[in-house]
Amino acid sequence: MVATPTAPTSTGRAGAGDAAWLATLAGAPLPSRRQEDWRFTDLKALTALEPQMITPADPLAAVDLPAGLERLSSSSAAPWLGQALAATASAEHWPVLLNSGASAAQACPLLALRVFGAAGSLDLHLDAGSTAGLATFRLLLVLEPGSSLELLLRPSSSGPNALSLVSEVILAPGAELKLGSLAFGTEESCLFQHTAVVQAAGSRLDHTAVAGGWGLARLEPRILQRDGQAFSRLRGLQVCRGAELADTHTWVRFDGPEGELDQLHKAVADDQARSVFNGAVRVPRAAQRTNAAQLSRSLLLSDRARIDTKPELEIVADDVKCAHGATVSRLQSEELFYLRSRGIASDQAAQLLQRAFCEEVLRDLPAAAASHGPLLTLLGRA
Amino acid sequence: MIRPDAPVLLDIRDLQAAVEDQPILKGVNLTIRAGEIHAVMGRNGSGKSTLSKVLAGHPAYTVTGGRVLYKGENLLEFDPEQRARIGLFLGFQYPVEIPGVSNLEFLRVATNARRAEQGFEELDTFAFEDLVRERLAVVQMDPAFLERSVNEGFSGGEKKRNEILQMALLEPLVAILDETDSGLDIDALRIVAGGVNQLASPDNATLLITHYQRLLDLITPDHVHVMAAGRILRSGGKELALELERTGYDWVDQELDRLAAGGQEAGRTPVEVG
């Protein structure tokens, strides 16, 4: 892993606490809390970073690729790059601009994979390490008709840095992708994880994103069902403690009829942590007979923690089923008492209930996740 | 089984308790010795379920007076979990469903908490499976219920069987069974009552809280107490339950009126009948 300081910017000497270098890299000013999408998201963990770039190790160098899958060179990947971002209206999104700018400024691993058969499973560790600065990853997955893949991404950080990961996924008719993400950081680290997916008719996406321990985590899965008639299953779990902030903005759009969405987002907020969820679902006129369900469930463990959760459904088609719900609750006192009345100490009882809450999402991760002990990492610090 | 020289396990003296400042228990007196089966009967709202919750340490109830000694120690000083570990058990009227928590793991953690208190070594997963499979026989329960979440999607009868299974694993000294008969068909009632009878021994005691005689047809109590307006109005032998079955609870109102006219203190001494 190599760290190189960025050149002083035209706005003057860059230093920690000064975000100018980030704006320069992105070619656009940092998001402000006056923007609706960033209203609850304090970027101080990002602006506190040392202005330097980290060149992370290439995660694909460390693994043997399974059959049915090949790595694309930059030139063969080029025609595909940008398609999913454009289709999900996120090419101009600030975290994406930052990723693109940083990638252009300095070589970052391009993880471009073409899947042409039943590829089995793959586990990729995307590590920003302990060095200060900004680490950038770019992932492209192109699944050909009828192909399948189970992919576990493990973005991680153990130091005062930001990990930027932009993934683009293109699913051809009949393709099936199980995409899991298990992201663990520290209170000094930031995660910007943007996942743009375009699904053709008859494709299936199971996406489960789990994040814990980041000073600032912003996760944005964005899915377009290009012709409807596809299936998208979204699962999310974010756990934040101390002064951490976890923010998930999801966006799903159906541009054809008979698409299905099954979405569950869960959050646990303790201490003075802050959790944000915004779930946008777009059902334009062309998307008749869409069947979409979104549920957000949050567990508030402290009086000082804060949870903001908002479904954002925009439905124009008239023949659709779109259900949504949001709950924010504490641990149920009757459940706690029942466990305690059987000799289980109150902190252990609380732990059991939190584990149960998290497991509903964790069990949807690819099987490879189990060996990384996600529960212990998420809740072990309790 | 009544043995006057048997050690006192639970001694409740003038117990008063409130929920949200509303007094519910207004001076309950009850002494339970090893080997005894007691039944507390009464109408809805008489305070009998509150008594069970107060004894188990439910945080929604505040003890406002009196005392409870468990084997000579002040029970009210202990957290609910400590009460369970030293051998007090509450069988819930409405066992709580806990999605996502495996019944088997829950039973194991609970059993080990009790064993640790007793100075026994903790059971690992394998040793515990052997034990739990043996105890399943007490309530004729299908092992498939071990693999499910605690009480989730269980029928009323299955939930109550799961309660008695917990009792069989925890081997309490004092088991309080709150309306264990409610919501059970006759077959389930027989199985649950059979389990309670199997677990009763000269060393432990059972407190049945029930509305109806039908449970007492299957589990013979040594003492029957009638609760009304937050106190025990009458105590007697098993024939008191039969009398109640015959006459209903109407006499309770007259008795309460008489007590109200005669002053507060009269109700604090149970009237012996039979």
Describe the structure.
The complex is a heterodimer of chains A (382) and B (274). In chain A, 16% of the residues lie in helices and 43% in strands. Chain A is an alpha/beta fold. Chain A has one domain (2-332). The radius of gyration of chain A is 20 Å and the shape is globular. In chain A, strands 1, 2, 3, 4, 6, 8, 10, 12, 14, 16 and 18 form an eleven-stranded mixed beta sheet that branches. An eight-stranded parallel beta sheet of chain A has the order 5-7-9-11-13-15-17-19. Chain B is α/β, with parallel strands linked by helices and 274 residues long. Chain B has a domain at 8-93 and 173-272: Rossmann fold. Chain B contains eight helices and 13 strands. In chain B, the strands form three sheets. A seven-stranded mixed beta sheet of chain B has the order 6-9-10-3-11-12-13, sandwiched between helices. Chain B has a four-stranded antiparallel beta sheet with strand order 2-1-4-5. A two-stranded antiparallel ribbon of chain B has the order 7-8. In chain B, β1 (8-19) and β2 (22-33) form a beta hairpin. In chain B, α5 (156-170) runs parallel beside α6 (186-199). Chain B starts with 7 loop residues before the first strand and ends with a strand. The model of chain B is unreliable at 265-274 (pLDDT under 50). The chains are: A alpha/beta (382), B alpha/beta (274). Chain A binds chain B through residues 333-335, 337-346, 348-349, 352-353, 355-357, 359-360, and chain B through 56-60, 79-81, 83-85, 90, 92, 95-96, 98-101, 106, 109-110, 113-114, 117, 149-150, 166, 170.
Describe the secondary structure blueprint for this structure:
The complex is a heterodimer of chains A (382) and B (274).
Chain A: E1 2-5, H1 20-26, H2 44-47, E2 52-55, E3 69-71, H3 74-77, H4 83-87, H5 94-105, E4 110-115, E5 118-127, E6 133-143, E7 148-156, E8 161-171, E9 176-184, E10 190-199, E11 204-212, E12 216-225, E13 231-240, E14 245-254, E15 260-269, E16 274-283, E17 291-300, E18 306-315, E19 321-329, H6 333-340, H7 346-362, H8 374-379
Parallel strand pairs in A: 2-6, 4-6, 5-7, 6-8, 7-9, 8-10, 9-11, 10-12, 11-13, 12-14, 13-15, 14-16, 15-17, 16-18, 17-19
Antiparallel strand pairs in A: 1-2, 3-4
Chain B: E1 8-19, E2 22-33, E3 37-42, H1 48-56, E4 61-70, E5 73-74, H2 80-85, E6 88-91, E7 98-102, H3 103-118, H4 125-136, E8 149-150, H5 156-170, E9 174-178, H6 186-199, E10 205-210, E11 223-228, E12 231-236, H7 238-247, H8 250-262, E13 271-272
Parallel strand pairs in B: 3-10, 3-11, 6-9, 9-10, 12-13
Antiparallel strand pairs in B: 1-2, 1-4, 4-5, 7-8, 11-12
Helix pairs in contact in B: 5-6
